[in-house]
Amino acid sequence: MRRYAVARSLFGPTTLRQALEVFGFVQADPIRAPARAQDLTLRHRVAGYRAGDLDRRYAELDVHEDVFVNYGFVTGAVQALMHPRGRMNRWPGGAGRRVNALLEFVRERGVVHPREVDAHFSHGTVTNYWGGSSNATTHLLDALHYRGRLRVVRREAGIRIYTTHEHSTDRIDAAVRRARLDALVDVVVRTYAPLPSPSLAMLVRRLRYAVPQWQKDLSAALLRARGRLGRERIDDLDWYFPADESRADDPPNQVRLLAPFDPIVWDRRRFEMLWGWPYRFEAYTPAAKRRFGYYALPLLWQDRVVGWGNVTVQNGAMRVDLGFIAARPRGRVFKRELDEEIDRLRSFLSIDGTVSE
Asked: Which of 45, 70, 219, 335 has the greatest count of CB atoms below 10 A from its CB?
């Protein structure tokens, strides 16, 4: 199951468009250490991928920033399964008038930066999710984006640039709802399989962020999934995967530094089952309490995650600091493959400087 988990996820290098279609969803994260999570994930699956390629090609791809089981990038086909999200025109208090005025402003401008909207409306501030103060216009733009009334057309210096967006208004009856939910569960499984039973349940529950309007139907969707997916029982635990998927070949003799949110390592429960140690993402852990590092990248060797690496770039040079859960693998093959992975990482980052380890 461990070999299968690695081999099926690390499919052969393909185009960016095809990689996005295979996954359907790629999780995003704004931290760059040394690059953002979406770039670190795609570099292993896209031939010749460079950091920032997704941003640079975003407008030409059928891809959208949206919420799935986490925030990230979904294909147009996946986004269509999730929207419209509930009763689109119900807003508390007097927010409805502000929403209509804001949407009309965006329609007139075509494409807007949040700064333009705020300058026009100056709505004040609200308390955001993290307990701090956010610009109220930005908060409203975020809400409209989540509800599907706006879409991100690009980013400028990390800031989302919006335009209006409309989704199908076709009637969604019970049969269509079930079919959409089953298709969304299939995207989850295609991205993260093989999944132990508790992880499958957890991810299906997280679809409440993708389809809050159908949250009450997720338990039934999970039962249907358990009935139709491929299943194998190991040590009294059921593992699930696409029913029509043949087992992939064994992983090659390669070293990979994975993103903390790469599908291979995203599920921390499954991580411990497959590799026997508890990897943790520690960017928000106080420095004195970190074991692995600020943005430790799991180090995959063949079908084993044997350690981690912290990668920093200073003055045009890249530094890779490695840690191992047990002894460092010995032999010339591991050393050669590690050197090649560091070279690939340097090329991905477009860095010419020396590498220290």
From this structure: 45
Residue 206 DSSP SS3? helix
Write down the pTM of the prediction: 0.92
Residue whose structure tokens are 């999780």: 27
State how far the alpha carbon of 345 is from the alpha carbons of 118, 188, 268, in Å.
40, 28, 24
Q: pLDDT (tens digit, 9 = 90+) per residue, 317-353? A: 899 999 999 989 999 999 999 999 999 999 999 987 6
* H/E stretch holding 18: helix 16-23
- Closest by alpha carbon to 243, among 185, 180, 303? 185
Contact 222, 186 (CB under 8 A): no
List, in order, residues 6 or more apart from 40 with CB less than 8 Å away.
Answer: 257, 258, 259, 262, 297
Residue 290 phi/psi, 5-degree rounding, is: -75, 140
> What are the CA-CA distances from residue 338 to residues 251, 254, 277, 331, 342 (Å)?
15, 8, 21, 11, 6
Provide long-range contacts, Cβ within 8 A and 24+ apart, for 46-54.
46/13, 46/14, 46/15, 46/16, 46/19, 47/13, 47/14, 47/15, 48/13, 49/16, 49/348, 50/347, 50/348, 50/349, 50/350, 51/348, 51/349, 51/350, 53/16, 54/16, 54/26
Enter the tokens of residue 300.
Answer: 């995959």
Compute the half-sphere exposure of residue 57: CA atoms within 13 Å on the CB side of its CA: 13
Q: Which domains does the chain have, with CATH numbers?
A: 95-164 (1.10.10.10), 255-356 (no CATH)
**If you average pLDDT over each of 83-87, 92-96, 132-136, 281-285, which comes out highest?**
281-285
Q: Centre a 10 Å sphere on the Cβ of residue 90 and count the other Cβ atoms it contains.
A: 9
Residue with tokens 């599907």: 148
Judged by DSSP in three states, 257 sits in strand
Q: Do the Cβ atoms of 204 and 211 come closer than 8 Å?
A: no
Look up residue 348 and give its two tokens: 């991905």
